[in-house]
Amino acid sequence: MIDENKLVDRFLQYVSFDTQSDEEQDALLPSTPGQIVFARALAEELKGLGLADVSLDDHGYVMATLPASAGISGTVTGFISHMDTSPDASGEDVKPLRVRNYDGGDVLLNRDKGIVFSVKDFPEIRKYRGQDILFTDGTTLLGADDKAGVAAIVTAMEHFLDHPEILHGTLRVGFTPDEETGRSASGFDVAKFGADFAYTVDGGELGGLEYENFNADNPVVTFHGRSVHTGSAKGKMKNALAMAAEWQQALPAGEKPEYTEGYEGFFHVYKITGDVETCRMHMLVRDHDQKRFGERKVFLDRLADFLNEKYGIGSVELEHHDVYYNMAEKIRDGHMAVVDLAREAMEAVGVTPVVEPIRGGTDGAQLSWRGLPCPNLFTGGANFHGRFEYLPIPSLVKACETVVEIGKRGYRI
What we know:
Elements: H1 4-15, H2 33-49, E1 52-56, E2 62-66, E3 77-82, E4 97-99, E5 107-110, E6 115-117, E7 133-135, H3 144-162, E8 171-176, H4 190-193, E9 197-201, E10 208-210, E11 215-217, E12 220-224, H5 240-250, E13 266-274, E14 278-287, H6 290-311, E15 316-319, E16 322-324, H7 328-331, H8 336-348, E17 354-355, H9 363-369, E18 376-377, E19 391-392, H10 393-409
Parallel strand pairs: 3-8, 3-9, 9-18, 10-17
Antiparallel strand pairs: 1-2, 2-8, 4-7, 5-6, 7-19, 10-18, 11-14, 11-16, 12-14, 12-15, 13-14
Helix pairs in contact: 1-3, 3-10, 8-10
């Protein structure tokens, strides 16, 4: 049995570290100093628990080994979680609120500020009625993404150390910076990690098992205008903001995140800055299917050509930035046993696997393309990246139990 109190206390300790990453600091890895502070504390904790080969590099990547039980040989299983929290909401001075025996109704998160977690807004929480749930105070995110994963992995390793009678193969653990900014996997040393396969513990609600994700392009579109005094602008002014608006209006109206689900891809404009002279637009292009992904990029190429023809060559510059690809292409190519192992482990601890495509990406997507098959496991959390994030404690316990069960079975693959 996993020690629930120890697991929860560890998670609460982890979220006390402010590890919010910063998309603007793209020349730094990690992008924020708080991540290094947490990485150092985590490395010292792993040493104190008795793990071997504990390492911390200059960029904040933490790795360690739990050696195999005596007489056990076979494949090496890895578990990976990220230490940073999303730039989308503050991770400073997190004040978790534990609601015991949740009654299924609204939750007052912050009396002073009048912040309420509304069941009308998040009706799916009703399925956790009767459970203890961790919320925020409504002013920060909680940090379950992904400190719940970190806590589950570390507690699982401690469980093996406390119970040497539980046989297991060699287990490697890795904790990474800047997953939320998309730069974590690029600095991850796969050879040094040395696992035959791994799992990111970075998913959402109970039972989540994911080995399909989006193909991802993050285009940047720059519109070049010409500013002229409005009193004499006729026939002379070329408004970069108006071109950006025309670009946005040309995107398929129904193919946006707010209108799509499952395997449906989308175009998404998430940031625009500029003025009449110059305007820059940041986008996301996503699709699970490689062919449709390519077609989406061609659509943007043709749109840029059209606007350049209309407003003059050089008016629109389009840069594609492929970030990651669908890991399913690599995992289906001879590595489905890794997925089957996760299914079996979940079922062994009483969890029904929920296999769905990720409408996003994980470190495992890039790592799978770099030769380390790496599906994603649930952490139990929900409403990530915002003030209404929450974590049912029984789900976190099951995440930890799943890691243990995989650790017991992994060497047999």
